[in-house]
Design a protein that fits this description.
5-stranded antiparallel sheet, 16 helices, 15 strands, about 25% strand, elongated
């Protein structure tokens, strides 16, 4: 009875050892070499089901070139010449793939059936986790010391408070606070934040439900010692640990990039203002030239027309050559007067004085006569309150859009719509042409018309979008805010 109980206890102990061992253990019969037991690590490493392994021998789990060596060692163990042996061999998985292993063979001494024990360790795993002369231990703190910013870790304590458990030495350089001092009092970082940015910081903190520096944030800090403002960027990632949530974070000095962004915005605003000024000067010059052409040149041509009429009435009736010559000059004057009106209208259409709807309608009729286009125009009946600068800008955008349709789109139909929505003017131009083609490589210089339209819209505080039409062609949409007339009405 005692013997049976001891055997049972031994079996339990053996199973426990096999279950807990990280080595690939095989226990096999000393005579037939058939595997009797295998540890979970062996099942995982060899990738065989346990029942399949129990129908194999250790030699079936080796690369062919290692079978003779292991066979010789097993023979030495069977004869008693050796009690144990260690060798480097290559194991073969069920799918035929190979991996290096350190194998220890032994023959336990005791009562019972003779068995051998195979204990293998996957050398490929050990090589990736163990230091070698070529791969010394990595000093993570040395790496952190070379990060261009402050690294830190924040831990949520069981009582709900958040504390800094690690801060890199760059704290002194970035914040002017030593790492130990910041760990002792994380509130010192909040004290550095400029008053204008504290509300945003507290809002992000409340939304994240964390403590100091446990959320992504970007803002300004005031360095009293250096009388300087810095932009800092905080980026964190959260992970759960047995001790509670931990935030791994890094704080970077992004002052230079922020100043560069501000300079780019300032330069862009200056260029936009310059472009707006240039357009304003151009329109002013066009208006001046249109008036000069219409008033001075038109007046002189009218005087010549009157003089030629007076002269024709006094020519001898029998002098046909002189009469024909005078009629020819009179016809040239008529053509010149018409050209003068056309040039003056192109410079600054007088119809703009009657409102943007009339101006666009006139423009569409003119384009319809000069191009084989079916044009549809829709506009509200009520007046659209646009100031002169906005009106001429909208008119020029329509003019440029129609010019692009004629030059590039190969369209047969154009639809133009004006609408009022939410205190803004909406202009939509849709054609059924070939659509906008994507550009490849460098610009060929043909996009300045579209760029000019965009700049005109931006100068008005509006927005212009160019996109493919729903079915075919191109859609240009312009949104321009209308002037606030309530202040004037109140006065």
């Amino acid at each position: 009875m005692t013997s049976s109980r001891n055997t049972a206890d031994t079996d339990v102990l053996l199973k426990t050892i096999l279950q807990e061992s990280t080595a690939e253990i095989l226990i096999f019969d000393a005579d037939s070499l058939r595997i009797i037991q295998a540890s979970p690590a062996a099942v995982h490493g060899l990738q065989y089901p346990l029942k399949t392994i129990q129908n194999l021998t250790p030699l079936d789990c080796l690369a062919e070139e290692d079978v003779p060596i292991v066979s010789g060692l097993l023979a030495a163990l069977q004869s008693g010449k050796k009690r144990r042996a260690t060798l480097q061999a290559t194991c073969r998985r069920s799918d035929g793939t190979l991996y290096p292993a350190e194998i220890k063979l032994s023959r336990p001494v005791g009562a019972g059936k003779a068995v051998f024990v195979w204990a293998a360790t996957d050398a490929s795993v050990r090589e990736t986790t163990s230091p070698t002369p070529d791969h010394p231990n990595i000093d993570l703190r040395a790496i952190v010391a070379h990060i261009p910013g402050m690294a830190y870790q924040a831990l949520r304590k069981p009582d709900g408070r958040t504390a800094l458990c690690y801060v890199s030495e760059q704290s002194a350089q970035l914040l002017g606070i030593k790492a130990t001092a910041l760990i002792a009092d994380p509130e010192r970082f909040f004290d550095l934040i400029m008053e204008e940015d504290k509300a945003d910081y507290l809002s992000k903190q409340a939304k994240a439900g964390g403590g100091h520096m446990t959320f992504n944030w970007e803002g300004r800090i005031w360095m009293e010692a250096w009388k300087d403002v810095k932009w800092v960027n905080i980026r964190v990632s959260q992970r759960d640990t047995p001790d509670g949530p931990i935030w791994d974070g890094i704080m970077l000095n992004v002052t230079h990039s922020k100043l560069a962004e501000a300079e780019i915005r300032r330069s862009k605003a200056q260029l936009s203002a310059l472009a707006s000024h240039v357009e304003s000067v151009k329109e002013s010059e066009r208006l001046h030239l249109a008036r000069e052409v219409h008033d001075d040149l038109g007046g002189n041509l009218t005087a010549i027309k009157i003089g030629l009429s007076w002269l024709m009435r006094r020519l001898p009736a029998d002098d046909d050559s002189l009469l024909n010559r005078t009629l020819y000059l009179d016809n040239v004057v008529d053509q010149t007067i018409e050209a003068t009106h056309r040039i003056a209208s192109s410079l600054r259409p007088p119809v703009l004085d009657f409102g943007i709807v009339s101006a666009i309608d006139w423009q569409l009729q003119r384009f319809g006569r000069n191009a084989d286009l079916a044009i549809e125009f829709s506009a509200p009946k009520e007046d659209i309150p646009l100031d002169p600068d906005a009106a001429i800008t909208v008119f020029r955008i329509v003019q440029e859009a129609l010019t692009n349709v004629i030059k590039h789109a190969r369209a047969t139909r154009v639809s133009v719509t004006l609408a009022l929505q939410d205190e803004a003017l909406l202009l939509t131009i849709i054609d059924n042409g070939k659509g906008i083609q994507p550009t490849r490589g460098k610009s060929n210089g043909n996009g300045f018309g579209l760029l000019g339209m965009t700049e005109r819209a931006t100068a008005l505080g509006g927005e212009l979008t160019i996109q493919p039409a729903r079915r075919r062609g191109t859609q240009i949409s312009l949104r321009v805010p209308l002037p606030d007339t309530s202040a004037g009405a109140a006065k």
